[in-house]
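Hello support,

Our group uses your service weekly, and this is the first time we've seen a run hang past the timeout. The protein is 3-oxoacyl-[acyl-carrier-protein] synthase. I'm not sure whether the cause is the sequence or the server load. Input pasted verbatim:
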Amino acid sequence: MRRVVVTGLGAVTPLGVGIRHTWSRLLDGHCGIVNVADRHPRFAEIPSQIAAVVPSGVRKDGGWKPSEWLSRDDERKMAKFTQFALAATQEALDDAGWRPLSHEQREATGVCLGSGIGNFEEIYDTVVAYEHNGYKKISPLFVPKLLINLGAGHISMKFGFTGPNHAATTACTTGAHSVGDAARFIAFGDADVMVAGGAESCIHPLALGGFARARSLSTGYNDNPTKSSRPFDADRQGFVVGEGAAVMILEELEHAKTRGARIYAEVKGYGTSGDAYHLTAPKENGEGALAAMRKALKNAKMPPSAVDYINAHATSTVVGDAAENAAIKTLLLGPEGKSDAGEINVSSTKGAIGHLLGGAGAIEAIFAVLAIHENIMPPTINLDNKAPEFNCNYAANAAQERNIAVALTNSFGFGGTNSTICFARYQ
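Update from on-call engineer: The timeout came from a worker crash unrelated to the input. Re-ran successfully.
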């Protein structure tokens, strides 16, 4: 197997546009969750009226302004999740210093980018228009803007990449599956460079209403949104829907070394599993999560004791956080791991950015990579009250300097789909 490294990072998140802006605000304990009741009158009837929204503004201030990234024609043709993905890709490619010019280079560069829900608002608006006014109100762009693989498609067309073109859509595991699958394309020789990540933008009353009816969302913090997402906290109620995109450039090691690329970290392992249990809830003992983590470490040829940090999926749901916490302790405690739960370093960044759904696994993979690159464990904000079983080190409300050579990042989704990626310091 060929070795795979990370050479570029890009992001559009509720903490701001640009990975440096996002990372610095994350470490400083900021939160991108706001009340969205004024965005649409139908939010008034939904018990959860909060979301993690990409801030508007100019790029230099970390804001989103489509005209700084897209032509007017491109903006018209692209769903918002695709617009975010294109911007994150441009930043990641610039960060990696990779702009292939020859036919061979373009053919060796591919894209693996997905979304969980995609262009939800377009579906809603088109259905309403069709119901009231018929066939002629359907836009010719309806289907092209609807298809989730058009995120990857637009990226490949924009930059001329003719290598593998792939789009995963596995609910909230999408971003992690995209990164893991892309790494394997390189490891197996199908590409030398891959654009990998996930994107989402579905902050709409019907989408939030659906999650609320499924009793998945935080509902008690409409007047105090920055406190609403509380991973591992005893007062957690549910997750907060977020939007954004995250992209990393993965590269075959010798290819990266030959061109003198900066290497952030190495992809060492990738594990996936299925719960085969329930539509939306994991098994209480975290069996599926544990299987994914064990497979990632087996693929990496590393013992549990090697793990210095875990970026948890932990969405702030009562059952989900407890199940993952149990799985992490089962994995890392014992003769081949840690002797005490307090030695386990785990944090969830969803208190700061909400749950980006199909983009979550990608941005959290980037956070795991930066934790290794800078030896900093990002904080779990809003963690004020821990139950006895939550006795690991969660970097509660403040980032921690740590020696982080190996990190895992977890992502789990509805339908019981699970994924873990293992990153390590390149040496």
